[in-house]
């Protein structure tokens, strides 16, 4: 089906008004609802308009002055945006999901203690003594711990405890008394079971709040989240609009997702969607998690060719807002100059999300401090290192700081991570975070008891620390640039919610849970129904949808895994055969 044959029922503006009218009607009748808004539909706009509708009729929806609308968000950025766009109105309680839930459950200390005592996870932490009488239950840094007079909760504990408490009619009644209406933003990313728990009593005992879910279950790309939520009390509302993308891209998304057809803005441009594939690559394709993919060297060469020689290179060179999206951190790491980091850690999250304390310290403190030193921004330098500005009593004090950072800068340019850390641990000018210092001590203690020639084999946190010390610090510097968003590269997971003028998506393998070629072949008319029931289908479909929907004007899809004939036929039908490009190769690395 070509673009010219695609018709749109409404303009994006008309579709948006229809969805808002349905939301207002649900609120007027006290009905729970779920607004399903595809990528670029303007979900946040609808949420803000719904909040304003309530504020304009506050006497009806919030009859008491102490009652508020709760608006649960996925991030602090989203929370701050909602507060800004509603002028900080005190009738709106906007907070992160965890912030709101802790606000609700924290007063019920005895109930929390009882639930923790029954938890298998906490029984192990409490060393077989589940009695928490006299202990305060606290939630601060999100780290589980048992202290002298209190226990501290992990982030995962908060929704789990809230689900249990929402099962209590009295708790639901007290919550509803304070918050008669609750909006949940990005509902697909809420922990599984939480949404159902919040509305559990809405039909039976009417003591649950009116709940509005705003989101898109096709943009569920994180594990342990609910995805689609279904409940007989929910009024489904579709928002069939796309205010982001040009017509070619909207058409492509509608082919991918015909059950939620979107209409572009009335003045949207045509845009482009181009498919590049590597089916005729002459080399031996990779195996295991990379099964069917061309080599890493060939992948990088194809990306270079796409940006410099292909037909798409024209808009790539002219673009001022351009992003390359990749599936795996290993691919992006090779491109950006930190190829060893993915091999250090068992889980990519350890370094990309800075869950490893050493990586977090180097990326968030040391590297920015070195930048501040080079730029002579000494106020920023001292602020980054923590605490108050040091007292510089004379030239000698200034000399100590200058000599140390000159040495650290030289070492960081050519040395290993371990050499940089050794310098940091040897100085007395500023303190090192406790978690980093403790890891260093544990590492030294573990090495001290090894027999001569014996290798350190466990625990994993120490073997990973040892491997981290042995890579070039330049890789930390490259990781900092990537995380600081100062490159054109991102993983597909990290750009959810973002938009760019022009996008290249590199679609390949790397994780066994994703197989884009297999997912797309399931759209072929003759395909087996079992393909859409495969474990990899929904994760692949959702991540592909999120990636393809970031572009406003131009979208190029570079497939570095082999595509089945069915897959090519599906893509050809969606974008037209003239927009399918087979990359030819001179050898196993070089595209023509």
Key attributes of the depicted protein:
592 residues, alpha/beta, Rossmann fold, 3 domains, 6-stranded parallel sheet, globular, P-loop_NTPase, nucleotide-binding, 3'-5' DNA helicase activity
Architecture overview:
The chain is α/β, with parallel strands linked by helices and 592 residues long. The chain is globular and about 70 Å long. Helix 5 (97-105) packs across helix 8. It has a 6-stranded parallel sheet with strand order 3-2-7-8-1-9. Strands 14-13-15-16-12-17 form a 6-stranded parallel sheet, with helices on both faces. Helices cover 44% and strands 13% of the residues. The two termini are 30 Å apart. The longest helix has 20 residues, at 395-414. It contains 26 helices and 17 strands. It folds into 3 domains: 12-96 and 177-242, P-loop containing nucleotide triphosphate hydrolases (Rossmann fold); 271-327 and 492-591, no CATH class; 357-484, no CATH class.
Q: Sheet bearing the most strands, described?
A: 6 strands, parallel
**Care to count the β-strands?**
17
Helix percentage range: 40-55%
Q: What is the alpha-carbon Rg in Å?
A: 27 Å
Total domains, how many?
A: 3
Q: What is the overall number of helices?
A: 26
Mean pLDDT across every amino acid position: 88
Per-chain topology:
Blueprint: H1 12-28, E1 32-37, H2 43-56, H3 58-61, E2 69-73, H4 76-85, E3 92-96, H5 97-105, H6 109-118, H7 120-125, E4 136-138, E5 145-146, E6 150-152, H8 157-166, H9 169-178, E7 181-185, H10 194-198, E8 210-215, E9 234-239, E10 241-242, H11 247-256, E11 263-264, E12 272-277, H12 296-308, H13 313-318, E13 322-326, H14 329-336, H15 341-344, H16 349-352, H17 357-374, H18 378-384, H19 395-414, H20 417-426, H21 434-448, H22 460-469, H23 473-483, E14 489-491, E15 500-507, H24 516-521, H25 537-548, E16 551-559, H26 565-575, E17 580-582
Parallel strand pairs: 1-8, 1-9, 2-3, 2-7, 4-6, 7-8, 10-11, 12-16, 12-17, 13-14, 13-15, 15-16
Antiparallel strand pairs: 5-6
Helix pairs in contact: 1-2, 5-8, 17-18, 17-23, 19-20, 21-22
């Amino acid at each position: 089906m070509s673009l010219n044959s695609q018709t749109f029922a409404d303009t994006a503006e008309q579709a948006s008004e229809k969805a808002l009218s349905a939301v207002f009607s649900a609120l007027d009748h006290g009905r729970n609802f779920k607004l399903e808004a595809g990528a670029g539909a303007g979900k946040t706009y609808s949420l803000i308009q719904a909040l304003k509708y309530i504020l304009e009729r506050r006497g009806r929806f919030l009859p008491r002055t102490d009652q508020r609308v709760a608006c649960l968000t996925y991030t602090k950025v989203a929370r701050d945006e909602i507060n800004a766009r509603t002028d900080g109105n005190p009738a709106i309680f906007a907070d992160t999901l965890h912030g709101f839930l802790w606000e609700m459950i924290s007063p019920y200390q005895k109930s929390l203690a009882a639930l923790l005592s029954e938890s298998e996870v906490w029984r192990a932490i409490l060393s077989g003594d589940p009695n928490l009488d006299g202990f305060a239950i606290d939630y601060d840094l999100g780290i589980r711990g048992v202290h002298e007079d209190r226990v501290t909760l992990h982030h995962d504990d908060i929704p789990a405890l809230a689900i249990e408490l929402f099962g209590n009619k009295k708790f639901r009644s007290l919550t509803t008394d304070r918050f008669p209406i609750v909006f949940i933003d990005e509902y697909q990313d809420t922990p599984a079971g939480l949404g159902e728990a919040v509305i559990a009593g809405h039909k039976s005992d009417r003591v649950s709040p009116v709940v509005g879910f705003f989101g898109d279950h096709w943009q569920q790309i994180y594990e342990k989240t609910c995805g689609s939520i279904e409940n007989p009390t929910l009024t489904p509302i579709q928002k069939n609009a796309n205010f982001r993308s040009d017509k070619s891209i909207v058409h492509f998304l509608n082919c991918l997702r015909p059950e939620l057809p979107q209409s572009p803005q009335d003045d949207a441009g045509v845009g482009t969607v181009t498919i590049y594939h590597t089916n005729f690559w002459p080399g031996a394709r990779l195996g295991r998690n990379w099964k069917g993919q061309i080599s890493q060297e060939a992948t990088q060469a194809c990306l270079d060719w796409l940006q410099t020689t292909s037909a798409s290179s024209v808009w790539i060179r002219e673009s001022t807002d351009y992003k390359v999206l990749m599936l795996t951190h290993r691919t992006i790491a090779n491109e950006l100059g930190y190829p060893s980091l993915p091999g250090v850690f068992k889980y990519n999250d350890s370094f990309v999300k800075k869950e490893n304390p050493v990586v977090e310290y180097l990326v968030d403190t040391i590297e920015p401090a070195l930048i501040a030193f080079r730029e002579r921004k000494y106020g920023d330098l001292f602020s980054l290192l923590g605490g108050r500005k040091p007292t510089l009593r004379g030239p000698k004090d200034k000399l100590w700081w200058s000599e140390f950072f000159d040495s650290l800068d030289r070492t960081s340019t050519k040395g290993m991570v371990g050499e940089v850390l050794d310098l940091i641990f040897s100085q007395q000018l500023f303190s090192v975070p406790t978690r980093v210092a403790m890891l260093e001590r544990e590492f030294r203690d573990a090495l001290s008891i090894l027999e001569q020639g014996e290798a350190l084999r466990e625990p994993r946190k120490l073997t990973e620390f040892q491997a981290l010390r042995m890579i070039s610090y330049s890789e930390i510097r490259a990781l900092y640039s990537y995380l600081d968003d100062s490159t054109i590269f991102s993983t597909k997971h990290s750009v959810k919610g973002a938009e760019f003028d022009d996008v290249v998506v590199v679609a390949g393998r790397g994780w066994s849970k994703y197989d884009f070629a297999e997912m797309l072949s399931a759209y072929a008319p003759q395909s087996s129904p079992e393909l859409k029931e495969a474990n990899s289908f929904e994760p692949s479909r959702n991540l592909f949808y999120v990636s393809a929907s970031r572009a406003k004007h131009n979208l190029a899809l570079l497939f570095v895994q082999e595509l089945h004939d069915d897959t090519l036929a599906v893509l050809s039908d969606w974008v037209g055969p003239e927009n399918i490009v087979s990359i030819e190769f001179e050898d196993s690395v070089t595209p023509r």
